[in-house]
Design goal:
Radius of gyration: 15 Å
CATH class: Mainly Beta
Distance between the termini: 22 Å
Strand order of the largest sheet: 3-2-1-4-7
CATH topology: OB fold (Dihydrolipoamide Acetyltransferase, E2P)
Oligomer: single chain
Structural class: mainly beta
Helix content: under 10%
Length: 132
């Protein structure tokens, strides 16, 4: 499954409709660099076909600040600024048709209709911490 679609009528992400994915090796899983980050900037992104934000997150002293586009407009900008997130930071950069370069993938769980609910981290996790 690639890009997700929000569809309140179909509920295509209901757990009863999701097939189990094939096994991957533990090495493949551990090759994904998942880190804790803190969102420090959120901008409207009206040029996108689907409602989206441009978000910048700080991933600590080694990685620094990275940008992404995310379909998380079910959160207000105020709810996102200062929020800790889990992100995959080594999937490669993706240049969107607008020219914006997305540098990480923010992780969340999908409601049955496809709405993203961001993963939550315990209080006090440092930006740049590895998620295991």
């Amino acid at each position: 499954m690639g890009q997700h679609e929000i569809d309140p009528d179909n509920l295509q992400y209901h757990p009863s409709k999701l097939e189990r994915k094939e096994y991957i090796g533990i090495g493949e899983f551990f090759s994904v660099d998942m880190r804790a980050g803190v969102i420090d900037d959120v901008q409207e992104f009206p040029e996108m076909r689907k409602p989206s934000y441009k978000i910048r997150a700080d991933f600590g002293p080694v990685v620094g600040k990275l940008w992404s586009s995310a379909q998380i407009t079910n959160y207000s900008r105020a709810q996102l600024i200062g929020r800790s997130v889990v992100a995959a930071i080594n999937l490669g950069e993706k240049t969107l048709p607008t020219g914006f370069v997305s540098q990480f993938l923010v992780l969340g769980s999908l409601d049955p209709d496809g709405t993203v609910r961001l993963l939550e981290l315990p209080e006090g996790i440092l930006p740049g911490s590895t998620v295991a």
